[in-house]
Amino acid sequence: MFQRELETLSRKDLVRLQEDRLRETVERVWHRVPFYREKLESTGVHPTSLRGLEDLHRLPFTYKKDLRDQYPFGLFAVDRQDVVRIHASSGTRGKPTVVGYTRRDITCWAEVCARAIAIAGGRPGDVFHNAYGYGLFTGGLGMHYGAELLGAVTVPVSGGNRSRQITLIHDFAPRGVAGTPSFLLSLAEMMMAEGVDPLDTSIEYGIFGAEPWSEEMRQALEGIWGIDALDIYGLSEVIGPGVSMECREGKNGLHIAEDHFLPEIVDPNTGEPLSDGQEGELVFTSLTKEAFPILRYRTGDIASLTREACRCGRTHARMSRIKGRIDDMLIIRGVNVFPSEIEPVVLGMKEFAPHYRLLVNRVDTLDALTLEVEVNPEFFGTKGGSHFDPTDDESHRLSANLRQRLKEILGVTTEINLMEPGTLPRSEGKAVRVIDQRDAMLRR
């Protein structure tokens, strides 16, 4: 463990620490962030009136819209000269969300990321191949500072340029790697095309995040690379990567750094708190952030919490793997569909490669789903010179089988387009799994 004393605190001591830090955070935003003072006053909350965690529900929620409305610096709680770093979202759905960091914030961030790498099995002296993107996106720099603090030899390769990545993995012999699961899959595919077996590399553990991925994707990554594939969670609004991390020993939920981030699960519709084990929307309150503290941030991610003991010995609460995002949920003919439900079905059938995308269209005023998925070249023998034929009987049988399985899971009919191996775009970072073509069709 990187910080054993903190990672193994008793629940009683952890709650006492959380309550102290929660009062400090509320005090900070009350005096320094007019937006929060107005919100707190409207709900009748004053910093001195907080008794403990039982009053958490009295604090106001923060929404992504609030961050955009306060763009760019309206939620900062320090003077500009105390901010040493700014990160921001892509802004593809409106104004970007902008977050700031003091020097102390950067230190805390490095600590939780170092903790995360250690949870995955990282050690001082490891060569750590960091394939997360660097820039306004928090992934690359967050993991970079964490790896350095842990004492790893950090390779800041960033995303893209698969050929160069393969060379560096061969020459530098990293023990750990970090990146998106889709990019590491495409990297392995290029290796095998060049006659290199990913199983022969030095990599022992992989830290994967920045996009939803399933247990079946874990099995695919571990089978191809011969590694422990582990899930990391973070979001820039809270700090970046390092909010929670899956341990190598358990692989059963992500340990939340509860000394820094206070988690809740609430009903997405009512906002009412839900009990451990119940699935709902994940909410976080920061406890140590100086520049950009945040109260009860509605992440939009669907998950559950548990405080059951873990075999690794860490005592902090664990969150489940993210099922999906509320704003990514598709409503198809009155049925709620999470795109993340598709991946386990596809990867659970040996006939398919782990490369797919979902097209959302409108047919005769009704929404329709089409899944494009590549066939497994080994199953269809395409390496031996024969060609995949999407019209033959075997392909029709395979399409019908997949369509039926998806219907049982999703509750709606999905059209299937079987694709030649290697025909779908490969990810250089975050995979684009859903292409919604409905708006474009309306504009025609």
Automatic annotation (TrEMBL):
Keywords: Ligase, Nucleotide-binding. Gene3D superfamilies: 3.30.300.30, N-terminal domain of ligase-like (3.40.50.12780). One of its GO terms (biological process) is phenylacetate catabolic process. Its EC number is 6.2.1.30. Residues 77-285 form the AMP-dependent synthetase/ligase domain. One of its GO terms (molecular function) is nucleotide binding. Belongs to the phenylacetyl-CoA ligase family. Monomer. Catalyzes the activation of phenylacetic acid (PA) to phenylacetyl-CoA (PA-CoA). This is Phenylacetate-coenzyme A ligase.
